[in-house]
Design goal:
The complex is a heterodimer of chains A (121) and B (171). With 121 residues, chain A is mostly helical. Chain A is 67% helix and 0% strand. Classes of the chains: A mainly alpha (121), B alpha/beta (171).
């Protein structure tokens, strides 16, 4: 019984350490991949070796060190260069259709297929 | 039912055409509109001689401030330099030059040869400060009033038209 409890505690501590550390650390590469290189043709900051991309990578590193969250970093970049710099569109009124439309189409399409098969039966 | 399906197909077709039209005619180049009428960001930038730091307080003192990002290795900076020299004669305008990712000796040679239009000279060795100002290439110039609001941002070398715009604003 004690052996089992020790085994359980070991796994709990071992995995909870990873779970909590995963919450705190931000992967800069993930942010670089979601930021557009403004001086390149369709490349992300991660893909580009341009001077601009190198500078942005340094700034992202600084912002992470300052304790900024991923969203705050995107906000900072959008504030300076406009929303165009972020690949993933932000959820706001302007982009609402972009986010909602696929779900509407999915529901509507499902409804159409459902009525089509019901009629055939 | 068939009529409804036809209408839906037509609607989807028109929607796709609409999306393509908007996407293809949209200007995807970086523009500075997001920065205009916004307050200049907090900054602390080191002077060219490494003796001082400049902050937003140095802008508040002047009616108008033009922050110009330049480098000796930047060919378009040479093109706009005579206009900056002319602007430096305006009493209502304070010009801060930020030397961008440059070597000190080469920057000094540049200014010795072409003249120094800057009231204050600072440097951004690794380019990190420039990101705070939304700069992605040089030369770039930012016109700020004493309320710390960005009035205009000029991407690329200043033209005669830009010169006239600045003069009209600061007169």
């Amino acid at each position: 019984m004690i052996m089992k409890l020790n085994f359980f505690l070991f796994f709990f501590i071992f995995f909870s350490k990873f779970a909590f550390s995963a919450e705190k650390t931000i992967d800069p590469n993930l942010i670089h991949k979601n930021l557009r290189c403004l001086v390149c043709q369709g490349q992300s900051i991660s893909d580009s070796n341009s001077d601009f991309a190198q500078t942005v990578k340094l700034v992202v590193k600084d912002l992470i060190d300052e304790g900024k969250t991923e969203e705050e970093i995107y906000e900072f970049m959008s504030d300076k260069y406009g929303e165009w710099i972020v690949f993933k569109p932000q959820l706001n009124i302007q982009n609402s259709l972009l986010w909602i439309l696929p779900y509407i189409v999915l529901i509507f399409g499902g409804f159409l297929i459902f009525t089509f098969f019901k009629k055939r039966q | 039912m068939k009529k409804i399906i036809k209408i839906i197909i037509l609607f989807i077709f028109l929607f796709v055409i609409g999306v393509f039209y908007i996407s293809l005619t949209r200007d995807t180049n970086y523009n500075t509109s997001s920065l205009i009428n916004k307050e200049v960001p907090e900054f602390k930038i080191i002077s060219f001689d490494n003796l001082n730091f400049y902050t937003r307080d140095d802008i508040k003192k002047n009616n108008y401030t033009l922050i110009n990002f330049w480098a000796s290795w930047c060919a378009p900076c040479k093109i706009e330099h005579p206009l900056l020299m002319r602007l430096s004669q305006s009493k209502n305008l304070f010009i801060i030059g930020i030397n961008f990712k440059d070597k000190t000796i080469q920057a000094e040679t540049f200014l010795n040869e072409l003249g120094n239009p800057y009231n204050v000279l600072a440097k951004d060795v690794n380019g990190k400060q420039s990101v705070r100002f939304g700069v992605f290439g040089i030369p770039e110039s930012i016109l700020i009033n004493n309320d710390l609001m960005i009035i205009k941002k000029f991407v690329g070398p200043l033209s005669n038209e830009d010169y006239n715009t600045i003069i009209n604003i600061i007169k």
